[in-house]
Design goal:
21% helix, alpha+beta, 29% strand, two-stranded antiparallel ribbon, five-stranded antiparallel sheet, single chain
């Protein structure tokens, strides 16, 4: 872990001023995706994680964790995109989260092999 975001260790954070998108890379074996989402969103919103609407009001955190759990190369990559706290959030199975203000997911622009 290189950096702490809202008390959660992440490996990398990138800020894209042009779009306002924040891209966080986390180790899915150490940090559940749902925890990394809340930490990243709290950082983006400059808020305490407990001040945010509960993630479960938008998605099932356990299902999200299971869906994007670290996969081996033969399983292929998947991602899940949803809106929470007026931010478009995309979680990739290879341990990347993008958070974009508003409702425009950045999946295509900041997906795998882009900006890595």
């Amino acid at each position: 872990m290189n950096t702490m975001v809202a008390g959660v260790g992440v490996e990398e954070i990138e800020y894209h001023q042009e779009t306002g998108t924040v891209r966080t890379q986390f180790d899915g074996a150490k940090t559940p995706a749902s925890t990394a989402v809340v930490a990243t969103l709290a950082d983006v919103m400059d808020a305490d994680p407990v001040e945010l609407d509960p993630l479960y009001s938008t998605v099932d955190p356990e299902a999200l964790d299971a869906l994007v759990r670290v996969r081996n190369e033969t399983d292929g990559d998947i991602h899940s995109t949803f809106i929470h706290e007026d931010h478009a959030i995309t979680v990739y199975s290879y341990g990347v989260i993008t958070v974009t203000p508003g409702h425009e997911p950045a999946a295509e622009k900041y997906g795998r092999n882009v900006g890595r």
